[in-house]
Design goal:
mainly alpha, MgtE N-terminal fold, CBS-domain, Tetracycline Repressor, domain 2, 3-stranded mixed beta sheet, two-stranded antiparallel sheet, 22 helices
Length: 488
């Protein structure tokens, strides 16, 4: 387990997600105890000075315990606790967080929590929390901050920092420019490694995740990279140009942050330079930002498949309704269509009652098969493996795989249908319907994400709803249609 030793004589503090969960449980227990005591005191006679005094003492005691508990945590763990509490309790804990943690916590929490925290802070506290931030960090918070606070903080920036802030705020949120860091080490190619080492020793500290130094010319054009390992293992008198690497990955500030994350994953990068159209070094992207991008993309993808957007789990009910209702209403419409299709075969179902028990299997298996294909396709789209040239090859492959799987599955289903109906005809209809519906599910699982991606839409958004509509409606239609033709 990773351990860090503070500069003070305090005990060693571990960085452990389980510690955060235990702290959350302790916070919830203290809040619960505070609520019980408060309710008990309120039952005393109205205006009883002793009751008021006791309530005040107990409240200060509980707040002192909460403050000590929370402020001993890492800012990321404080953010986790704030995200896990209802708004009223969240605001109480936020007021107890030490001012020295405010900036780090605001950067760590999710957007939907950050807005409520900023609303609870007065202007002076916001300025104090943000005035020490780097330009890229301030750019992340700027959309949620009051304009007058941003203007006030800008006054304390140098001309270079102000220019960086304006530049960072000008890039889209989902671009490399939106996540790049301006703090980096750069050197010239005509100096010796000894000069570089002396330069590094004069720095207060290296920027986080510094695994390489960027080599530039007098116009800041990127010439190559010097890894720390090369700097340490080579002789000090050697010039930088002799050991620098020229085979490196560079990013454009307008590249997608998801594409950058894919490059980091593929090439096992810790950091990468960001250059403009003229090849000048303007920033870098580090693994810490990339991890955040990967997590956010994963969360968005999981929510999009259900037709949802990220929401505060403790948000007011009306906000949750606005988020969830549209796709649920669409799902209701699609389910109604599936029921309408089934109702058109009322005579068939009433004649062979066993079909009513079997048709849900056809629809369900088709949906599950399509969901497997859709998950595979969405993942492949996310990492850029699907192109115009291989999409139809992929469709044919998925159809073949699904057909072979459906042969096995439908045979088992046919045996089951024969066992409960004692009818070979019902078993054969069941088998044929399952094969057809699973192929439809596979086709929808490929085409829906690919078509949405082609038009610049999120391939995962509402995909499961559309898949369910297709496999339910077509499953009922095919199964009951075949039954009407061959069994009546």
């Amino acid at each position: 387990m990773t351990q860090i030793t503070p500069d003070t004589s305090a005990s060693i503090r571990r960085l452990d997600p389980e510690d955060a969960q235990q702290a959350l449980a302790q916070v919830q227990e203290l809040l619960h105890r505070h609520e019980l005591v408060e309710n008990l005191v309120h039952r005393q006679e109205h205006g009883d000075e002793r009751a008021v005094l006791v309530e005040g003492l107990l409240q200060r005691q509980h707040e002192a315990e909460l403050k000590e508990l929370v402020n001993d945590l890492h800012p990321a763990d404080i953010a986790f606790i704030l995200e896990s509490l209802p708004n009223a309790e969240r605001q109480l804990i936020w007021r107890l967080v030490s001012a020295e943690h405010d900036a780090d916590v605001l950067l760590e929490v999710d957007d939907w929590v950050r807005e409520s925290l900023i609303e609870a802070m007065d202007r002076q506290d916001l300025v104090a929390a943000t005035e020490g931030m780097d330009a890229d960090e301030l750019a992340d918070l700027a959309p949620d901050l009051p304009p007058d606070v941003v203007a006030e903080v800008q006054k304390g920036l140098t001309i270079e920092e102000r220019a960086r802030l304006i530049e960072a705020m000008g890039y889209p949120d989902d671009s490399v420019g939106g996540i790049m860091d301006f703090e980096m080490v750069r050197v010239r190619d005509d100096v010796s490694l000894e000069v570089v080492l002396r330069y590094l020793r004069h720095l207060p500290e290296l920027p986080d995740h510094t695994d390489q130094i960027f080599v530039v010319d007098r116009n800041d054009k990127l010439l190559g990279t010097l890894t720390l390992s090369s700097l340490l293992v080579n002789e000090p008198e050697i010039e930088v140009r002799a050991v620098m690497g020229t085979d490196y990955l560079s990013l454009s500030p307008l590249d997608s942050d998801s594409d950058a994350a894919g490059a980091f994953e593929r090439y096992d990068l810790v950091s990468a330079p960001v250059v403009d159209d003229l090849g000048r070094l303007i920033g870098r992207v580090t693994i810490s930002e990339v991890v955040d991008v990967i997590r956010e993309d994963s969360d968005e993808q999981a929510l999009s498949r259900a037709g949802m957007q990220e929401e505060d789990i403790f948000a007011p009910v009306i906000m949750a309704l606005k988020n969830r209702a549209p796709w649920l209403l669409l799902n209701l419409c699609t389910a109604s269509i599936a029921s309408f299709v089934a109702s058109r075969f009322e005579d068939t179902v009433s004649t062979i009652v066993m079909l009513a028990f079997l048709m849900s299997i056809v629809a369900g298996i088709g949906g599950n098969s399509g969901n497997q294909t859709m998950t595979l396709i969405i993942r492949a789209l996310a990492v850029g493996r699907i192109t115009d040239k291989n999409v139809w090859q992929l469709v044919k492959r998925e159809m073949l795989v699904t057909f072979l799987v459906s042969l096995v599955g439908s045979t088992v289903a046919a045996v089951f249908a024969w066992a409960i109906s004692n009818s070979i005809s019902v078993a054969l209809v069941m088998m044929a319907a399952m094969i057809c519906n699973m192929l439809i599910g596979a086709m929808i699982g490929v085409l829906v994400p690919v078509v949405r991606n082609r038009f610049g839409k999120d391939p995962a958004m509402g995909s499961s709803v559309l898949l369910t509509f297709a496999t339910d409606s077509m499953g009922f239609f095919i199964f009951l249609g075949l039954a009407t033709i061959f069994l009546l």
